[in-house]
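Ticket reopened. Same input as before:
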Amino acid sequence: MDGVHDMGGMHGFGKVEPEQNEPVFHDDWERRLYALYRAMSYAGVWVIDQARFARERLPPAVYLASSYYRKWELGMEKLLAELGLVGPDELAAGHALRPGKALKRKLAARDVPNIVTRGSYSRAPQAPARFKPGDRIRTKNIHPTTHTRLPRYARDRIGVIEAVRGCHVFPDTVAIDKGEDPQWLYTVVFDGRELWGEDAEPSLKVSIEAFEPYLDPA
Amino acid sequence: MDQKHEHHHDDEHDSELSEMQLRVRALETVLTEKGYVDPAALDAIIEAYETKVGPHIGARVVAKAWSDPSFKRALLDDATKAVLSLGAINRVGDHLIAVENTPKLHNMIVCTLCSCYPWEVLGLPPVWYKSAPYRSRAVNDPRGVLADFGVKLPVGTAIRVWDSTAETRFIVLPMRPTGTEGWSEEKLAGLVTRDSMIGTGLAKAPSEVA
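Engineering reply: fixed in the latest deploy. New output:
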């Protein structure tokens, strides 16, 4: 969706402000929330792109005004309600009002060393890869109202396939419960001027990781 | 909720719980009562990310690559496999890609759409990495972003920005500082900053750690 989360190239957000000796978390609620999110992900109730899409669907003003973990918290509340796992009435009451549903699994402390390693998103291909390194492509001019990982700044632009990264779960379908539909993934590199015009930094190259359905031959 | 997670504030003005403290407390209570989560597992996750996983892991990978040319080749060829081969270092999931800085090319990593970051080798990302200023400007004003970090590259150094739009993850292999000939891997790792592995910084000079 063409939301405010798709920030590449936007103006007006100001300087980057690094914090010296930044702690991993800034408040205890951030710690607990992060852990809750990971534990529920482990339970198999959502996949990563569903969680991203929930945050993308927050109202734009809320998205922009919220801290990072506040967005996670609001996205999680939204998803839990949509999945019928926790009602807004229960969050308002601060207690469970109905028994929980059966989940795929439950994270125990002894499993935690395994979850700090990410799972694989590679899947068996459904067809041979359409492109190879060196091929010129044009990204599609698409504006789905649902989740996509093709950023706005890189749509309808000519680029070159730099690497084939294997065949992966397709975010655009898995985020909306339409299955993994595995697709070839490529590193596609663009000249800065192709993206930003003649005034772009002359030496700049920008790459995205692009799924095959985003690309046409050029 | 576990006692050790309660804050005690002497300051009266600070004694009210914030909106977010209340929301997260309600969320944790409900998820626990429904049997979805085990608070002991939550404690273990927090401990792992506060004490075990962090940029010290990536720093060891970089120091090894600086010291061992065959490891460096393996790292640039398949970072997932190369990092796994170190064994003693944290396990790493699929799709890790290492990109090398040279005098002619500087690499920078961003996720314009959310906050994708190589957790296993760098830990959780800093706030600025997830912020609108970085996500918006890294792709079209990387030299300006570097200036915000106090970094000025030579004019002849080209810039390559990697937008992490899928489940591939990137780590920058910064240039080895001069004057470090004969240093041990452990000593070299002390020069490798988190920002140098994101591409918003350079490795420290020996004089900075003396």
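The radius of gyration of chain B is 20 Å. The longest strand of chain B covers residues 105-110. Please confirm and we'll close it.
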